[in-house]
User: Fold this.
Amino acid sequence: MAERALLFEDVAVVGSSAEGGAISVWTLNRPDKLNALNTQSHQDIKEQCARVESDDNVRCIVIRGSPPLEPEEGKRPKPPAFAAGADISEFAGKDSDDVRPFFDDNAWEAVWNLSKPTIAMVDGFALGGGTELALSCDIRIASDRSTCGQPEINLGLIPGGGGTQRLCRLIGYGRTMEIVLSGGMVSAEEALQMGIVNKIVPAQELEAITMGLAQEISRKSPFTTKAAKRAVRAALDLPFSEGVLMERSEFVALFDTEDKEIGVTAFLSRSDAEWVGR
Ligand code: COA
Assistant:
C-alpha cells in the first residue's frame, strides 16, 4: 500500500470540562520531498477536513510537517520542512485543462473553510503551497529556523492556493507584492515582523507551545469558538459597517445558548465552566 501523504492523530483535550474533546493533529508525510503537497496530500487533507467537520469531538486542528528522516549513508541530511510547496514534479507537461479541476477543488480552500479553529505548526521551509497551507490556517506558530515565501514566480507561475489574497489581507499590498514578485525567502524574524506568523519560538519548544495553545482553545465552548471564527472571518469579506452588524448578530444569538449561561454563571460563582457545546 502507498505511504499515506498525511498522518493524523486525535489527541485528547486535557482538563476540558466538556464531554471528551480532541485536537486533530495532521502531519504532512513526505519527508523525503520536504513534505511537498502532491495530489495524494490534497486528497488526504480534504478527507480529513470532511471527517473533523462532522466529528463533534474534534475541537481544533493542528497541521505540521514530518521531520526529516535519518539520511542514507554518505547522503546529506534533508532540512526540516512544513511543506516546500506544491509538488513541482506534477506540473511538468500539464496545461490549464489538466490542472483546473485540481485547483478548483483543493486542500487550501478545504482547510480555510473549516468551521473549527486551525493552527499551522511550522518548522523549517514553508514555501509556495506550504506557505499557502499555513495561511489557510487561523494561526501560525513557527520555529525560529523557519523560512517562508512564494517562489512560484521563479517557475513562471504565481501562487494558486489563495496566497495572493490571504497574504494581502494579512500583511498588506506592498509587502505581498514584494514577496510574490521577488519570489524571495522570508526568514522567521521577518515573517514575525510582517505578521505572517503569530509568534516564533525555539524549534525544541515548538510542539509544546503550539499544543499548549491548541489545548487552551479546545477548552472553550466548541459552539462559541465557531461563532468567534465566523465573526472575525467576516472582517475579511464584508464592508466594516456590515461586519459590525454581523458580529452583533452572532453575539446576540449566543444569548440563546446554554454555554453563555454556563460561562456567565461559572464566572459569577468563581467555578470552572462545564460547557455543553450548545
Ligand atoms: N516539489 C517537489 N519536490 C520537492 C519540492 C517541491 N516543491 N521541494 C523539494 N523537493 C524535493 C527535491 O526535489 C529533493 O528531492 P530528491 O532528494 O529526491 O532529489 C528533496 O525534496 C530535497 O530538496 P532539495 O532541493 O534537495 O533540498 P535543499 O535543502 O537543497 O533545498 C529548498 C531546499 C526548499 C530551497 C528547495 O528544495 C526548493 O527550492 N524547493 C522548491 C520550493 C518551491 O519552489 N516551492 C513552490 C512550488 S509551487
